Amino acid sequence: MEGASGVIKQDMDYERVRRKGLENVSCKCMLFCLGYNIRKLFTLIAGKGKIDYWIAPDGLEAELPQTPKMEKIIKKLQRKEAAAKH
User: Fold this and answer.
1) In this structure, are residues 34 and 8 in contact, taking their beta carbons and an 8 Å threshold?
2) Which of 19, 32, 33, 60 would be 56's cystine partner, CB 3.0–4.6 Å?
3) Phi, psi of 27 (to 5 degrees)
4) Helix segments in the chain, DSSP class H
5) Distances (CA, A) of 27 to 34, 43, 78
């Protein structure tokens, strides 16, 4: 999020919200986020964007998610059912 807010502030000349009210401010922020995403899309279409930034460097192994154990899930469900009965 830090990178996106930096681009919006510096490259898109956005300094502060000049609207009043939560609904108006939310709308303005959503419009700037939409503009940011459209800008990224056109950068990718032009062939200047980088889409492989999430690929790990050589020598690092991918961390695989742990599979949940059924016993743990069953106990958790039983606790929820017991709490709901009380």
Assistant:
1) no
2) 60
3) -60, -45
4) 2-6, 22-45, 70-85
5) 10, 24, 43
User: pLDDT tens across 3-34, in order?
Assistant: 777 777 777 777 777 778 888 888 888 888 89
What's the rounded Cα separation, in Å, for the pair 50 and 79?
47
Cβ burial 32-64 (10 Å sphere, 16+ → b, else e): beeebeeeeeeeeeeeeeeeeeeeeeeeeeeee
Query: How many Å apart are CA 10 and CA 51, to the nearest integer?
Result: 22
> Could you give the 3-state DSSP secondary structure of residue 86?
coil
* CA distances to 24, 61, 75 from 55, in Å: 38, 11, 37
pTM (2 d.p.): 0.48
Q: At 13, list the tokens.
A: 């000349």
What lies within 8 Å, CB to CB, of 82 at 6+ separation is: none
CB atoms within 10 A of CB 69: 9
